[in-house]
Amino acid sequence: MFQAPRGTSDLLPDEQHYWRYIESKAVALAGRYGFHRIDTPAFEDSNLFIRSVGEGTDIVEKEMYTFDDRGGDSITLRPEGTAPVCRAYLEHGMHNLSQPVRLFYFCPVFRYERPQAGRFRQHHQFGVEVLGDPDPSVDAEVIELAWQLTRDLGLREVNLFLNSIGDAECRPAYIAELKNYYSGFHDRICADCRARLERNPLRLLDCKEETCQALGDDAPRSADHLCQQCQDHWDNLREYLAAMEIPYEVDHRLVRGLDYYSRTVFEIQPVDGGAQSTICGGGRYDGLIEQLGGRATPGIGFATGMERLTLNLKNSGVEIPPSALPKYLVANVGDAARPAALYLAATLRRAGVGAILSSGPRALRGQMRQANALGLPYALILGDDEIKDGLVVVRDMNSSTQESRPLEEFLDELTTSPDP
Fold first, then answer.
1. Share of the chain above pLDDT 70, in %
2. Which of the following CATH numbers is that of domain 328-414: 2.40.30.10, 3.10.50.30, 1.20.120.140, 3.40.50.800?
3. Phi/psi zone of residue 335: left (φ > 0), alpha (ψ -120 to 50 degrees), beta?
4. pLDDT digits (tens, 9 = 90+) for 31-43
5. Looking at residue 338, what is its pLDDT?
6. Is 409 exposed, middle or buried (0-12, 13-18, 19+ CB in 10 A)?
7. Tens of pLDDT along 64-82?
8. pTM across the whole model
9. What is the largest CA-CA distance in the chain?
10. Which end of the chain has the smaller Cβ count within 10 Å, N or C?
11. Neighbour tally for 283: CB within 10 Å
12. Sorting pLDDT into bands at 50, 70 and 90, what band is 192?
């Protein structure tokens, strides 16, 4: 028997209402902030991610799904959402639009990593990107959007963590100090961190191994090594967040896992979950567009996983509004009434009223059991006598009471009243 590949999952009907709930809240919120939707392909030229995410990152070295297509081109399934949006911004000349450009998306992403709760090899993201404005007030708005999304979804037991990792001017000196610190613990850090020490020292702070995390507590702090421009940006951002009454904590180990980040980085985590249960994360990437061949263009964004949000909604006991169900089961007494039942069901649906035709040649009692099993509040019953007299029997499944109604009158009332 075939099964879904390891690290993937089927989104079954019982789970769909969580996703639709998240999507509806996210779309409404993005609209209030002036964002417009963009959809990019599920795969891109591999060099897009190698150049943007960074060769020394775990994503590029260990996690990307990369293959040569039949034309011999190296293709990678999308491992994150920002680089494709930036590629589209360049390719379609969005720099000619009024800046900043505000975009949001829903997309699957693919990473070969160890599956665990809320983390899959194919998972799905909601993300936002703002391109074309370097002001820290934009950072504050993007962070507010992420924070407000958790509020709108009903998640309360979460924390916002914030850091500044500087830019190309001040980061080299900080990296040198970071390397000097970790060099003294070369024999205590994990094998991955020994490689990071040479190739990508900033990732040392992002290691999830217990020993390495303990060393990170006393490591030099990026926010203590900012140039004046980065310091001003950092100070203004914190001032703006205070003005917006958004609570946060500074986490000096927060660096995020992608090379393109600069200055602001942030994450929202469940109170009891820690960094490995991060709900959403993002930051500023002012040099990314230039890395991809465009002119210098500031940018900032975040992404959040649909699976991770669903898990947190369940763990937090958030009540999700049930999905809208059809209201009526259309039943028939005898095979001769089946065409009339089909016509009535079609008429209801064409009028915008949900209706399900009873299944197969069942006795009336079996059809009523079907209505109860589906949770439908009403059954509409047609038999030979009803068809002859132009009537329909409307049965209230909750009270088990019923009445005969003129069919045309009943249909007319449905256009003005939700109840029969």
1. 97
2. 3.40.50.800
3. alpha
4. 999 999 999 999 9
5. 93
6. exposed
7. 999 999 999 999 999 999 9
8. 0.88
9. 93
10. N
11. 28
12. confident
Residue 308 in tokens: 């991770």
Give the integer Cα–Cα distance in Å for 405 and 149. 47
Tell me how far apart the alpha carbons of residues 409 and 412 are, in angstroms, rounded to a whole number: 5
Q: Name the strands in the sheet holding 355-357, side by side, starting at the edge strand that comes first in the sequence.
A: 355-357, 328-332, 378-382, 391-396, 401-406
Q: For residue range 347-405, what is the model confidence (pLDDT) as tens digits? A: 999 888 999 999 877 899 999 999 999 999 999 999 999 999 999 999 999 999 999 99
Residue environment code for 43-79, b if the CB has 16+ CB neighbours within 10 A, otherwise e: bbebebbbbbbbebbbbbeebbbbeeeeeeeeebbbb
Q: How far apart are alpha carbons 217 and 51 in whole angstroms?
A: 30
Using pLDDT thresholds of 50, 70 and 90, give the confidence band for residue 419: low
Length of the chain, in residues: 420
Which pair of structure tokens corresponds to residue 44?
């891109």
Rg of the chain over CA atoms, in angstroms?
Answer: 28
Extents of the domains making up the chain: 13-170+226-315, 328-414
Tokens of 281: 């994360």
How far apart are alpha carbons 229 and 236 in whole angstroms?
11
The larger pLDDT score, comparing residue 51 to residue 259, is at 51
> Helix/strand/coil (H, E, C) string of the chain?
CCCCCCCCCCCCHHHHHHHHHHHHHHHHHHHHCCCEECCCCCEEEHHHHHHHHCCCCHHHHHHCCEEECCCCCEEEECCCCHHHHHHHHHHCCHHHCCCCEEEEEEEEEECCCCCECCECCEEEEEEEEEECCCCHHHHHHHHHHHHHHHHHHCCCCEEEEEEECCCCCCHHHHHHHHHHHHHCCCCCCCHHHHHHHHHCHHHHHHCCCHHHHHHHHCCCCHHHCCCHHHHHHHHHHHHHHHHCCCCCEECCCCCCCCCCCEEEEEEEEECCCCHHHCCEEEEECCCHHHHCCCCCCCEEEEEEEHHHHHHHHHHCCCCCCCCCCCCEEEEECCHHHHHHHHHHHHHHHHCCCCEEECCCCCCHHHHHHHHHHHCCCEEEEECHHHHHHCEEEEEECCCCEEEEEEHHHHHHHHCCCCCC
What's the CA gap between 260 and 289, in Å, rounded? Answer: 10
